[in-house]
Amino acid sequence: MSMGFSTMAALTSSASTPETENSDVERSRSRSNKSEPLIPGLPDEVAELCLVYLPYPYQALVRSVSASWRRAISDPAFLHCKKSLSLPLPYLFVFAFNKSTARIQWQALDPRSGRWFVLPPMPGHYSKLASPPGLACASLPRQGMLVVLGGSDAESSMRSTIVYRTSTNQWSSMAPMPTARSYFDAGTINNKIVAVGGSGTRENDSIRAIECYNPENDTWATLATMPVGLAKYDSHVVGDKMYVTEGWTWPFMFSPRGLVYDSKTDAWRDMSPGMREGWTGVSVVVGNKLLVISEYGDCPMKVYDHDKDTWRYVGGDKFPCDSLRRPFAVSAVEGSIYVVACGLNVGIGRLSESEAEKGELQVEWQVLPAPSAFRGFSPSSCEVLYA
Questions:
Q1: Is there a contact between 71 and 7 (Cβ–Cβ < 8 Å)?
Q2: Would you call 140 helix, strand, or coil by DSSP?
Q3: Which helix (H) or strand (E) holds 331?
Q4: Cα dihedral sign for 277, 281, 285, 286?
Q5: Is Repeat among the key words of this record (predicted)?
Q6: Alpha-carbon distance 203 to 50, whole Å?
Q7: Is 90 exceeded by the pLDDT of residue 358?
Q8: Can you name the residues that pair with 352 across neighbouring β-strands?
């Protein structure tokens, strides 16, 4: 903090090439901007702290205020300072669609204020799609990074990889997946994104290939192939393992299949019978605990016991079915579960250990009603990112 962000930016930019080398006017304007104070009347060191404390998504908007503000907020030292002060807070990012208007969009919710922000539209072919195109989403929460993979257009499955960063409030196209796929799942293991299964370019073409994306160097690698192709996916990562299940589907005539991927050995095995049979809804991980919100009856919540290979019901409040109607998209952070429901109403479940029974979990629910403008939207995916 002894050297201001603007001073550091000036040092680093002196070795770079201006975007418009041939323009004497631009070079002159750039030199003039460097001498401008960030906020008139304040030392730059104090003004920079003011910018650091701006909440998401306003930090991205300050880029349009002035060249000096844009330069300050774009400097790597700015983000480092924000992280070192533990300023990033969790926001809920929701991918939703409206059947009646054929509209898709991403929104971000500040759970502290209940305020929603609409994200820029996804680039390329995604902006032309009229419904959730079978894409998969994953995230690196602490890096403020959201990753959208694959999907399908009117003709075939796709290989696309696009990344949203909270620091810039922008989307970027990255290295495409080696395999085109849609209607699949993805998860995060050791800060890498793993794409699992799905459908290929031909109808009923089940994909067993597993691929891993490294966002640090924008590359893909191939992992151990799944032993079988599953028909429907729900998955979650607990520790170094990724659990993948078909889940129970109407009319409940066939027992679901399930697999477990161990990233340490790069190998697959069958899911244990108790886990497979009790996985009756959408899953979420809190700490190292795997939970499901059942998609039947009054939507009871269960937690999996690895030692006993059984599921136990979570005590406390009943799930607020009157306010939260299916379909659900679920995520979690810092001991809280976020359930996005039809109309984008959000239920926040706070887990704690029961005082009456040691080791037993209980939940307390709070509902954040969505704006009336979201009434026709249904959630397709949600992720928690720090911003």
A1: no
A2: strand
A3: strand 329-333
A4: negative
A5: yes
A6: 54
A7: no
A8: 362
Other beta carbons within 10 Å of 358: 7
DSSP state of 296: S
Measured distance CA(123)–CA(162) in Å, rounded: 8
Residues 6+ apart with CB under 8 A from 49: none
Please say whether the beta carbons of 236 and 284 come within 8 A. Answer: yes
Q: Which of the residue ranges 54-68, 214-228, 246-260, 353-367 would you say has the lowest mean pLDDT?
A: 54-68
Provide the token pair at 345. 């109403």
For residues 42, 167, 350 and 112, what is the CA-based torsion angle, rounded to 10 degrees? 40
- Give the CA radius of gyration of the chain: 23
What pLDDT score does 201 carry?
60
CA distance 195 to 209: 9
Confidence category of residue 204, pLDDT binned at 50, 70, 90: low
- Pair of tokens at residue 268: 């697959």
Instruction: Copy the structure tokens of residue 368.
Output: 């954040």
**Angle at CA 212, nearest 5°, toward 91 and 169?**
30
Q: Which pair of structure tokens corresponds to residue 318?
A: 């009943």
Please tell me the distance from the alpha carbon of residue 65 to that of residue 253, in angstroms, as a whole number: 60
Q: Give the Cβ contact number of residue 278 at 10 Å.
A: 18
Integer angstrom CA distances of residue 110 from 61, 92, 385: 17, 7, 11
Single-letter amino acid code for the residue at 259? L
Question: Which distant-in-sequence residues (6+ apart) come within 8 Å of 32 by Cβ?
Answer: none
Selected residue with higher pLDDT from 298 and 11 = 298
What pTM value is reported for the model?
Answer: 0.83
Q: Which domains does the chain have, with CATH numbers?
A: 5-84 (no CATH), 90-386 (2.120.10.80)
List the structure tokens of 373: 């403008």
The pLDDT, as a whole number, for residue 6 is 41
Indicate if the pLDDT at residue 331 is higher than 50.
yes
d(C-alpha 376, C-alpha 103), whole Å = 10
The overall average pLDDT reported for the chain is 85
Token digits of residue 312: 């136990």
Give the range among 43-57, 70-84, 138-152, 185-199 with minimum mean pLDDT: 70-84
Residue 219 in tokens: 């590359």
Token pair in block for residue 91: 């926001």
